[in-house]
Amino acid sequence: MAEEFIKFWAELANRYDSAIDNIMGDKIRPKIREKLNKEDNLKNLIELGCGTGYFTKTLAKKSESIISTDISEEMLSIAREKLKGFEFQVMDCQDCKFDNGIFDTVFMGLVLLFTEPEKALKESYRILKPGGLLIIADPDISFLSSYGNLKFRFKALVNYRRIPNTGHFLNQGKIVNMLDKIGFEVISKEIIRDDSDPNYVTVNYIKATARK
Fold first, then answer.
1. Is the whole-model pTM more than 0.90?
2. For 112-123, what is the HEC assignment?
3. CATH numeric code, 3-210
């Protein structure tokens, strides 16, 4: 990814957790973690775009082994401080330094929108074993009213201080179509929302297996 993008996350690292909760509502990430707590037998797992490690401990409980990666060393420094004994690696999820077909599960939490989506999904497919599982939790702003969309973008600008021009907000249909094109079979798709405010962004929670 571009050096400017890496710099953006480095500057945001120390306030990322508060920023994302202010933008999306502080109930959304806990709801995603609740979904992950219901998963089982994720075996050999890689977490792409782990950020400060919010989902890492939960994923570790549901897997036999876990490697958590992020493009930002500053994000990972915070994660390492919070989670001693976990394996974190600096890595671009669009260009992973792993061999083909070695992971049972790939998890991408609130990261796909900040990638070139098709490239990131193809890379996930490459490193998954045949039949391996991809879990995506990705924001969806397609349902928002004009006011809600404006409010969301204002909150993002206030909290992020600038909005990365690499953002790709995909609705559920677009993600599902992309997955099918790449070679995944979608096995479930849900929407996670905070019902306390209709202007909060929902999150698509999609599971797919690699057809190989």
1. yes
2. HHHCCHHHHHHH
3. 3.40.50.150
